[in-house]
C-alpha cells in the first residue's frame, strides 16, 4: 500500500482499528482517569431525606401565615441526628443546616426572622411559605437515575459525585496497553551523556509516553533502538504479542534507513494506512500485527505530535468507547492566513485565547518542523484546509494535553 490517503480517510481507517476494549469493574477509589464502560446510576436518592438548608426553626408553614406567631420549641436537631418526632400544631424544632426535617414540618424559618423571648419559645416575625429553606429528598437526583454517562473519563468531580450517591464500584474500559519503540542511531537517551558527532538527545520517548498517558493508555515498555532492522523487528514482535498498541517513531518514510515498512511486512502486518496528505506528518503507518495495532510516526518530534493528536488519539478514543473526533473544538483566526497551495491538510501549532467572549486563534508561532521551542508556546493545534483564509474564519481546533480552559 503506497498510495496516499486523505486525512478524512486516514481518520476513518484508524477509527476502524480501535475496537472498544472490554469492560472491568473497579473500586471507585481506583478509578481516577478511567473511562466508563457503563453509566453510573444513583444507588440512593440525594439528599436521602428532606433536610434544612439554613440554620433556623423547622415549622409547619400553616402555623406562620399571620405573623408574629409564638411557637413552642420542642428540641434541637443537628446534621447527623435522627429526625425529631412529628410536629404538632403550634410547635417548632430548632434545626441546623443539613439536619433532617421532622415529619409534619414543611419549612425552615431562618434565625434572623425569629425572636426568642424566653427559653422554649420562638416568635416567627414574617410569613412563611411551604418549602422555604428546605431541600426535598431526591432533589438532586432520585435513586436509579443516570449520574454519569458511559464514555466519560472519571476525574475528581465525577468520582465525588458517584460517592455522594453511594456508588462504591464502577465499570470501566480496560486501559489500553501500549509499548513505545523509538528508532534512530543518532539518539542519545541520557542528557548527562555528552553528544558525539552527529548525535542528538532523544525526546520522543518522553513525548510519546506523556501523550499515551493523556489519552488514557498505560505505557508497558519504552525501547530506544538504533536503525537496525533485526532489533526493531524483534522489539515490535515482542511488544505486539503483549500489548494492544505499539507506537514507533522514526524509520517510517522511504530513506535508506527507514526500515519500519519492511519490518511490518515481514511480521505479516495488515497495512491500513501508509501515507497521508498531512503536513507535517505525511509518512504515517497504521497496521495490524496479530491482535495489536501498530502506529509508525515521524522521528521528528513536532511531526510526531501532530500525527498523535490528529490520528493516534482517535484510536484511543475508539478503544475506550468514546466518540472519535480529531478536532472537537472551533476557534476563529485572529489574523488572515496566506499559505502556499498544497494537497495536504495542514495542522498548525497555535495559541488560542478568549477575546471579547470569542475564542481566537493565533498561528503566528514558528511552524517549522525543526523548531520545537514554539510547541511550548502553543496550547492547541488547528486544522487548515485552504491556503487563503480571512481573519475571523472558523477553524477546527484540538487543545493540547493539559491546555483546555
UniProtKB/TrEMBL annotation:
Protein name: Molybdopterin molybdenumtransferase
The UniProt record lists the keyword Metal-binding: yes
Catalytic reaction list: adenylyl-molybdopterin + molybdate = Mo-molybdopterin + AMP + H(+)
Family that this chain belongs to: Belongs to the MoeA family.
Gene Ontology cellular component list: cytosol
InterPro entries: MoaB/Mog-like_dom_sf, MoaB/Mog_dom, MoeA-like, MoeA_C_domain_IV, MoeA_C_domain_IV_sf, MoeA_linker/N, MoeA_linker/N_sf
Claim: Iron-sulfur is one of the keywords in the record: no
UniProt-listed Pfam families: MoCF_biosynth, MoeA_C, MoeA_N
Alphabetized UniProt keyword annotations: Magnesium, Metal-binding, Molybdenum, Molybdenum cofactor biosynthesis, Transferase
Pathway(s) the chain acts in: Cofactor biosynthesis; molybdopterin biosynthesis
Segments forming a coiled coil: none
Required co-factors: Mg(2+)
GO molecular function per UniProt: metal ion binding; molybdopterin molybdotransferase activity
EC number, as in UniProt: 2.10.1.1
Residue span(s) of domain MoaB/Mog: 179-319
Organism domain of life: Bacteria
Enzyme class: transferase
Function field: Catalyzes the insertion of molybdate into adenylated molybdopterin with the concomitant release of AMP.
Gene3D superfamilies: MoaB/Mog-like domain, MoeA, C-terminal, domain IV, Molybdopterin biosynthesis moea protein, domain 2, Molybdopterin biosynthesis moea protein, domain 3
GO biological processes: Mo-molybdopterin cofactor biosynthetic process
